[in-house]
Amino acid sequence: MGTSSENAACGGRGNAVPKEVDYANYFCTYSFLYHQKEMLSDRVRMDAYFNAVFENKHHFKDKVVLDVGAGSGILAIWSAQAGAKKVYAVEATKMSEHARALVKANNLEQVVEVIEGSVEDVSLPEKVDVIISEWMGYFLLRESMFDSVICARDRWLKPTGVMYPSHARMWMAPIRTGIVEQKLGDYQSAMGDWHNFVDETKAFYGVDMSTLAKPFAEEQRKYYLQTSLWSNLHPHQVIGTAGIIKEIDCLTATVADIENVRSKFTLSITMENTKLCGFGGWFDVHFRGRSEDPAEHEIELTTAPSVDYCTHWGQQVFLLNPPTHVSEGDELSVNFLMSRSKENHRLMEVELGCEIQKHSGKLVAPFKNKYYIE
Ligand SMILES: C[S@@+](CC[C@H](N)C(=O)[O-])C[C@H]1O[C@@H](n2cnc3c(N)ncnc32)[C@H](O)[C@@H]1O
Known about the structure:
It contains 9 helices and 15 strands.
């Protein structure tokens, strides 16, 4: 199929960085097999998509499918094996060549057509019955790849078409963790090292660097204390109820709906005498088909803290420094805003405000912190 530089249906690229920069920062990692292998080895992810396709073959049998961001081609291959009559597998990177080889090696080249290009630029000869895509980044929306799926949906999905996955949700819960002390120690030691550096530079080279202490401290604080951390939380680290930040219907969501995620929600502490050390954020997606054409077997893919299953997405941890004492029955009123970084639309910034009402009714001084999902 052809590609065109037209991108009319997607309303341009918004505040996206130039294509070459985007390629260097984002796409290039996906062109490595080791990176695709990491995703292909995530059993929770693989089982969910596998079951979603093969337990709902009626959505695929004799249908036309578009795989957005095909990578190695795994979802396109499964779609074909489930009976699709045609699958367009669109992949922006050179991984498309490996996908084409896999399709051939699995005798599916009559059904699966691998197209190298951005889905925004691709031109298909027909509309499709199903869009399948694994577009989720850390805390669901990092990478902003869902924009591309929305674009593909608006251009190529038939009015009766189905999205795989069909729904997504972002979650957050209060947590305890020893990492805060460790990160605070790292930050203090970096600042101690800075003071030695200033003394030595003055003594040996005659230049006073002390005026840079404030920006250095800001930079280090951002790095150690304000950048969210990838973590595999144990459920015991979750000290209260989890709240839904955002629900997305993949059939109807627009880029405007996800560009800024604003939410107010209340979380209850469920553990006696413990420390609130921060918040854990994760997501789930569901494969439900559409209301007029539902899935026969609804499948869920969750990245919630679990003893048995962990995913390559893990959870994102937002540290609270210093931690604060909480106990069962305390209520946290959270004010959440996640927006895209101005420098790179695929990275996120989070503002998290919180008021704590103790079980006794007493209010604790509220806090508001800024975090970066890098
Ligand atoms: C998370 S990986 C999933 C790969 C594969 N579908 C799987 O499930 O194993 C996302 C893939 O989408 C590709 N991609 C992201 N945005 C794209 C776009 N706008 N057009 C085409 N491919 C894109 C990336 O290069 C990457 O290979």
